[in-house]
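pinned: reference chain
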Amino acid sequence: MRMPSFHQKTIRQEIQFKGVGLHCGKQVIMKLIPAGPNHGIIFKRTDLKNKNLISATFSNVSQAVLCTTIENEFGVSVSTIEHLLGALYGEEIDNLLIEINSQELPILDGSAKEFVEEIRKAGTKNYNIPKKFIKILKKVECLKGDKSISIEPCENELQIDFEIVYKNSLIGTQREVVNFSKSNLDPIYNSRTFCLFEDIEKVKAQGFAKGGSLENAVVVKGDKVVNEEGLRSDKEFVMHKILDCMGDLMLANYKIFGKIKCSKGGHQLTNEFLRELMSNRENFSIVEFKEKRLPNSPLYAVTSAASA
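pinned: its structure tokens
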């Protein structure tokens, strides 16, 4: 069992990524820079001289169609943040300055695989400052047509139960349940974004996917995968949806302890859900955990305390 880290964490050294933006089609340089405690996750648009900081928080989401975009009060935005934020959620990184010279993150291979590999190479640094968690107190549900997402209390654990339903015969209906203290997250990190072949021209006509290719997305045509290498796992489609969900949950400001169940969800639904959840303090409490050494034992007891 993997216990969550109860102290705030950043990376040990700077990491740089280069690649194309999936939707803008532009070449991008992005740097992950260690940050101190209580800094949070903040993006900095280095192609702009002023008003260029954007906090990664659900209230800053300005658009959530095909990707998640956040925007500051001055209208400066950064998009397709979900795969990196999914990696940060799983690797428990709380504090980071992300410098980027464009309006969109590099898509790399369409997954979070490279982000996680480089974070693990760089290593992480723990601060002796407790991190805060959102503890769910009662069930909250968000419905939109046949799409749904809900959360219920779950003691000191995040669980995501995700279902996708596609008319396409290859994708079909897939479901996966992930317990973050027990599950191997690598299959989630390794899962790539995907689309149906018949949707490509429609998506491009809307101004998206200018940088899309078989190198950064799985394309499904009928009952076959167009990519020569095929799928990385039998459940790559639903795993990628869980990765997206993790990234969007990172925008809650704190990690969440709760049991999430989602059917046919996506970026827009998750953001609406977070806004609903966080709008009422009766839905949750903010807690932090403190380690206390047990007498005559090398082990620690972990206790929680409510925080304002």
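why pinned: The radius of gyration is 19 Å. Residues 113 and 186 are 8 Å apart (CA to CA).
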